[in-house]
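Quick question: what would this complex look like in 3D?
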Amino acid sequence: MKLLDKAFRLLGSKGARYGVPAALLLAMTALPFFLDDYALHVLWNAMFYALLALGLNVIVGYCGLCDLGYAAKFAIGAYTTGILMKSFGWNFWLTLPMSILVAVITAVIIGAPTLKLRSDYLAIVTLGFAEIVRITARNLPITGSASGLNAIARPSLFGLRLTKISHWYYVFLVLVVIFVFISNRLRHSRFGRALAYIREDEDAAQAMGVDTTRYKLYAYMIGAVLGGVTGSFFAVTMTSISPGSFDFTQSANILLAVILGGMGKIPGVIAGAAFFAIFPEIFRDVPIVGNMRMLFFGLLLIVVMITRPQGFWPERKRG
Amino acid sequence: MALMQITDLTMRFSGIVAVERLTFDIEEGSITSLIGPNGAGKTSAFNCMTGFYKASSGEILFDGKSLIGLKPYKITRLGIVRTFQNVRLFKNLTVLENVMSGAHSVTRQSVFGALLRTPAQRREERGIRENAEYLLDYVGILNKKDELAKNLSYGDQRRAEWARALAAKPRLLLLDEPAAGLNREEKDRLIELIHKFRADFGVTVFLIDHDMDLVMKVSEKVIVINFGTKIAEGTPAQVQSDPLVVEAYLGVSEEEGGAL
């Protein structure tokens, strides 16, 4: 662990602060020229989880709230887009503002009564709400019941119809950049600090003049919007969505990605999500181990949590 | 008119009376103390004044405005800023970020300012940072600004908490047992510092403590409570010779000759 810390400290130096992300971005941009569709799909999946983890990170990592039903946020985005496109013939890009609006409204409905209480209650309410969303989606005709919505049209961007996995790879890469930008700007601001004060000590935050109920609601709304937008893009990438994609395992996976990488730390959260998406794939084809890969994955999670409960990404060093 | 007027303040917890009909004033520019033995109701009174408890009955006026029913953050925004008995810094944030939290109640940029990083937002951020650094220098721990708060010594944590409170530009500074955990030398320095806060920032200071020594040296007016009710009020000298106070503190009757 010492050596790892040293390597991370090197990465944390001033030049590396912009150099490493830039190099990484460049490499990610070049990759589709060298990889096959399967590998691209794995990377797309990693970016998809990264988006969800970044969204949940605002709620859990920045503000310290416990959300056990994040899958519901992206389900709502996915279904909003799916329904508007399938049943009302909307253009995909026009469904995005609606998806954001619906995310905000549901966040207020869930958050406003719950966030007045101590933060722990949110865990139970979000868990219950996620189940309500999933079961409702399974039973309503407009959401396609158990089979879900299929053959959702692929949208176009600047005249190009986005049909190939490489197209979606780039779309999600851009989304990751945007989400990182948002996360970073929020973190280094009066608003972001207020969330951190709430996470650290809610009473002391109140005593310093932070309207804790309102700020918790803002954090929850921003997390919901990021999740909703990700869900909308998920719907048109996959072209079909069903209640099975949004079960509790999904919520747990996203939460694990955030905790595994290190709550509140942007590179850590992305690394956690990438690890989560890529690790099982790497071991898929290894004999014997392949069948037990989830077991090893579980063991690894336990080891990481015991040795580094703050996540595997190191604390930032300043100065 | 006094800066804060407390009238018949009563705080009950399901039948148990913690504070009963407490009445006193805090004059603008004064250093006033509320003292009493452990369990006398000091902290309950303090929490009513800062909005952490909602008083059962009675009135608390600050600059003529009622504080009853206001949430803590609103009371802070009115210019009443508190510290905590056991120092409650934001442990995993840097000392600078801790002190910057004080500015929250006197600044306004929110989500959109943060995302767009407008000139107004950047100006405000610079102001928050510079003021925090100035205050850290003032309390003498500017060199520790980038350390995590949890890594500071206890004395330095206290200093960081004072800087944080001052960053909120208080009119009334409420100190909850500021001498707890300090040694004799540190206490003497604290007395100087409290006078300095008043001189340099024009704040009115109110503190609760059971440390007689500190309270008598620093205060101009002392209110003594026991079992939730006021038993004495006056200058330190007046209070010190009050037989009721002597009894409350030493638990002996006059005939046995208790002295302070």
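Answer marked as accepted. Strands of chain A lie at 156-157, 160-161.
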